[in-house]
């Protein structure tokens, strides 16, 4: 049985929510351009998954994508993976954007080219690899991994 509640925050979660170390790193101080989504496992009130969404797109592929909101990070505690948490977080972020017509109608993200499970998840949700002249748009992440850009029009 799915015992998670998706909660949205504009900064740190309330003190009654215990945050998994696998999620803690993506939280941060309030920022008007960021929104956080947490999958809170109930009834224990433990955040076992999180997603950080920027209301602004990144520079990589902007000439092809146009303006977009960007999933900056998605993380699920390994003990809770394969339970639909990542899917629920992505759908919550998409729904949040759909409810705000003044924000971009496109959502983008970067995914490591070797992360087959994440690429499969995003593909199932309707995201496609973005290309320029038939060549996938890629970039090197801050931790030196080759990533490709995937997008979905909402």
TrEMBL record:
SUPFAM superfamilies per UniProt: Acyl-CoA N-acyltransferases (Nat)
Start and end residues of each N-acetyltransferase domain: 1-154
Record-linked InterPro entries: Acyl_CoA_acyltransferase, GNAT_dom, MshD_Acetyltransferase
Pfam families, alphabetized: Acetyltransf_1
Gene3D superfamilies: 3.40.630.30
PANTHER family with a match to the protein in the record: L-AMINO ACID N-ACETYLTRANSFERASE (PTHR43617)
Protein name: N-acetyltransferase domain-containing protein
């Amino acid at each position: 049985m799915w015992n998670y509640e998706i909660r949205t925050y504009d900064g740190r979660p309330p003190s009654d929510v215990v945050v998994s170390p696998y999620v803690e790193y993506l939280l941060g101080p309030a920022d008007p351009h960021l929104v956080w989504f947490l999958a809170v496992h109930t009834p224990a009130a433990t955040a076992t998954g999180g997603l950080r969404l920027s209301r602004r797109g990144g520079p990589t592929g902007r000439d092809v994508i146009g303006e977009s909101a960007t999933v900056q990070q998605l993380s699920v505690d390994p003990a809770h993976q394969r339970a639909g948490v990542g899917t629920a977080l992505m759908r919550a972020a998409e729904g949040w954007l759909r409810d705000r017509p003044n924000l971009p109608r496109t959502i983008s993200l970067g995914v490591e080219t070797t992360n087959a499970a994440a690429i499969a998840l995003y593909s199932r949700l309707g995201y496609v690899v973005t290309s320029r002249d038939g060549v996938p748009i890629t970039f090197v992440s801050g931790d030196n991994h080759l990533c490709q850009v995937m997008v979905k029009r909402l």
